[in-house]
């Protein structure tokens, strides 16, 4: 497993993306990465989108034993690895997004694209059989670099600061009034009059009376239910009541 090494202090000139633990064929991923290496980003995107839909084959320079020859590749050997093409396309789009966040130009080249074996998980068949089939996962890494002489987009100017007059007005609005000045008394802060107090007491007493009446109604309903339940469970004439065991 290897990775692209970038010199210290030059990380801002490159954009990197990586996909880890992918359940896909390492050989297919290697060949897909080899087809986009050292190509402009636009051409790499077009190739991967066509390959992920099965519209264009991928050239296999290695791992091509018993492969068919493709007319689109000029009679060379190739295949249609849709799954691997989708994975590499996802990694490439992530690298492009990272380049935009860093402020790089749109004229980018795929400087590095590789796929390696990540890990192998042992799998045994059930019921004590000894058929072993390991689950192999892979990783994909893509590094983008600007073309020579490419101009980066200009950074947007920061928003202008608020004028001093607005700041002064805000400070005056937030300042508290002096201690000697009398604050205006609102209606909520005025003490209640005796007439208002009497009205509030009358309202409270009326509410309490309504609550007590509701409680009495509930109690009478409960008592009537209990009496009705006792009448239903009365023993039939000529039969002895059932005696509960000790």
Short description:
The protein has 246 residues and is of the alpha+beta class. 38% of the residues lie in helices and 16% in strands.
What series of H and E elements makes up the topology? EHHEEHEEHH
- Which fold does the CATH topology of the largest domain refer to? Ribosomal Protein L22, Chain A
How many structural domains in the coordinates? 2
Number of contiguous helices: 5
Q: What helical percentage do the residues reach? A: 25-40%
**Class of secondary structure makeup:** alpha+beta
* Spatial sequence of strands, sheet with the most strands: 1-5-4
Q: What is the makeup of the main sheet?
A: 3 strands, antiparallel
Could you explain how this protein is built, in words?
- The protein is α+β, with helices and mostly antiparallel strands.
- The chain has two domains: about 140 residues, Ribosomal Protein L22, Chain A (Alpha-Beta Complex); about 40 residues.
- Strands 1-5-4 form a three-stranded antiparallel β-sheet, with helices on one face. A two-stranded antiparallel sheet has the order 2-3.
- α2 runs antiparallel to α3.
- The protein is elongated, with a radius of gyration of 41 Å.
- The mean pLDDT is about 80.
List the helices and strands and how they pair.
Elements lengths: L13 E9 L3 H11 L4 H12 L5 E2 L18 E2 L2 H21 L5 E14 L13 E12 L17 H11 L19 H39 L14
Helix pairs in contact: 1-3, 2-3
């Amino acid at each position: 497993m290897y990775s692209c090494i970038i010199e210290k202090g030059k990380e801002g000139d490159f954009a990197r993306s990586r996909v880890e633990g992918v359940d896909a064929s390492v050989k297919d991923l290697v060949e897909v990465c080899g087809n986009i290496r050292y190509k402009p980003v636009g051409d790499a995107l077009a190739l991967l989108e066509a390959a992920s839909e099965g519209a264009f084959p991928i050239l296999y320079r290695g791992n091509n034993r018993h492969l068919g020859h493709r007319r689109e590749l000029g009679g060379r050997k190739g295949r249609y690895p849709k799954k691997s093409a989708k994975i590499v396309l996802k990694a490439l789009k992530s690298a492009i997004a990272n380049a935009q966040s860093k402020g790089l130009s749109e004229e980018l080249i795929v400087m590095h694209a590789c796929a390696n074996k990540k890990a192998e998980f042992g799998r045994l068949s059930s019921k004590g059989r000894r058929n072993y089939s390991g689950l192999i996962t892979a990783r994909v890494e893509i590094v983008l670099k600007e073309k020579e002489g490419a101009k980066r987009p200009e950074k947007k100017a920061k928003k202008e600061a608020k004028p001093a007059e607005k700041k002064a007005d805000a400070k005056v609005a937030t300042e508290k009034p002096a201690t000697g000045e009398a604050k205006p008394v609102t209606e909520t802060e005025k003490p209640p009059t005796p007439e208002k107090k009497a009205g509030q007491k009358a309202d409270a007493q009326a509410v309490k009376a309504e609550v007590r009446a509701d409680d009495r109604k509930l109690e009478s309903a409960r008592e009537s239910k209990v009496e009705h339940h006792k009448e239903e469970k009365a023993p039939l004439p000529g039969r002895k009541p059932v005696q509960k065991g000790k």
